[in-house]
Amino acid sequence: MAVGLFITIFLLFHRISSSNSSDEGSSSSYTHQFVYPINLRSGQRNLNGTRQELVEARGKISGLCERPTKIGAALKAGIDSKVAEMSRTFSALKADFEKEVNETRKENAEVERKLRSESMELKAELATKITELRAQF
C-alpha cells in the first residue's frame, strides 16, 4: 500500500514539474524573471487538480487495500467453516470407531471366558480319563 501511494505521489509531482518546466522553456530570458508569478498561479491551478487526483488515487488505493481484506476475511470464514465441519465429522467418526472397538473388546472378552471355561472342562475331562486309564492298567 505504501509503495503504491509513493509511486502515485511521485508520478503526480513529476507531472507538476514537467508542466512547470514546459512553461519556463517557452518564455524568453527577458521575461524569465516575471514568469514566477504566472507559474505560481498555473502551479496553484495544477496543484488543485493534483490534489483532487491525489484524493481520487488515495480512494482507489484504500478501496484496493480493503478488497483483499474483505476477500481474506471471506476466505478465512470459509476455511474456518470447513475446519469446524471436518472437526465435527472427525469427532463423529472417532466416536463410532471407539464404539465399535468397545463392542469388539466385549465380544472378545466373552469369547475368551467361553474358551477358558471350555478349556477347563476339557482339562477336567482329560484328567478324569487319565485317572480312569491309570485305574485300568
Which features would summarize this protein structure in a list?
single chain, mainly alpha, 0% strand, signal, coiled coil
What secondary-structure arrangement, pairings included, does this model have?
Blueprint: H1 2-26, H2 35-136
Helix pairs in contact: 1-2
Provide a compact summary of the structure:
Residues 94-121 form a coiled coil. The chain has 137 residues and is an all-alpha fold.
Q: What does it look like?
A:
The chain is mainly α. The chain has one domain. It contains 2 helices and no strands. α1 runs antiparallel to α2. About 12% of the residues have low confidence.
The run of helices and strands is HH
- What is the arithmetic mean of pLDDT? 76
Sheet with the most strands, sense and barrel status: none
Helix tally?
Answer: 2
First-last Cα distance? 106 Å
The percent range for strand residues is under 5%
The computed structural class is mainly alpha
Describe the oligomeric state of these chains in a short phrase: single chain
Q: From the alpha carbons, calculate the radius of gyration and give it in angstroms.
A: 46 Å
Q: How many domain modules?
A: 1
Roughly how much helix do the residues carry, as a percent range? over 70%
Shape: rod-shaped
Low-confidence stretches: 23-38
Number of separate strands: 0
Coiled coil: 94-121
Signal peptide: 1-21
Keywords: Coiled coil, Signal
